[in-house]
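Hey,
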Amino acid sequence: MSINSEILFLAMGVAFFATLIGVPLLRRLLMARNVIDTPNSRSSHTQPTPRGGGVVVVLAVIAGIAILKMGEQAWPTDLFPIIIIAFLLGCVSLTDDIRNLSPGLRLLCQALAVGIALAIAPELVLTSIPFLPFWLASIVTAMIWVWFINLYNFMDGIDGITGVQTATISIGICLLGITGAISFDIVAPIAIIGVASLAFLFWNWAPAKIFLGDVGSIPLGFILGWALLYITHEGAWVAAVIIPGYYLADATITLLKRAIRGEKVWTPHREHFYQMPVLHNVRHDLIVLRIILANAVLVCISIWVTPMDYIYALSIGSLIILGLLWHLSRLGRP
């Protein structure tokens, strides 16, 4: 099957406008039900704000992908079960947004979701890891995927940041498909995720009127983790590292610092690099604009530099990411 551009644009339009129109309607319901994120000493926001906007984003993505299915569009064979698992994770995460589930239960659900996904799609296992038997490579892959899901949640701490990161990864993967670096089948569903995240930014850009919540960040982290493993399986492993590189670096370095100090890494804090400027009264949008600029460069490196020299691409990408982390750690300081 080939891509029908009319069906694709219809699916993208439904995902975009369903998010754009549905989020303010959901916001009223969340406020009425008092599903509110109240600021505390570890928050990066100052006004009580409803959380759970991810409900609309996830449902809009599912609606768009359903249109692709009805239009008999080509897509990866594993996509349908991945979307079902993501939806179930979203249900668990919605419960967490409302009732605050224990970290252990959340982690168990995520590990189970990843385990089922890898059983369905064993080709996603990073068998290219040297000297590892398949069973051990499966465990390593699962750990990386679970970590990506959690870092996507950890990094959703200021207005607009996760919408921007989701759009960045989506655009990067779509460009890889358009340029022929990977199969084109993944472009349509990922484009739908990208446009839904852009629509959500209309309501989540600083000052945010609603937050994504775990119900949005967890399923998105799961689906995008699958997409990055998918393009890795197709040989684009350098792009799979560089495109989400800022999120990977900020979350991982921060976690390691907290773990070394013996702190509970799952508890809320304000130690991420993107949170440091907030402590010095730098506006959220000014921080996110810097991340957008760095992400745009990372995508360009992944698409156009990697085919020429992947070592050069990894080196330049690493310098961009480290430079952004250093800049954010100094931004706003006297």
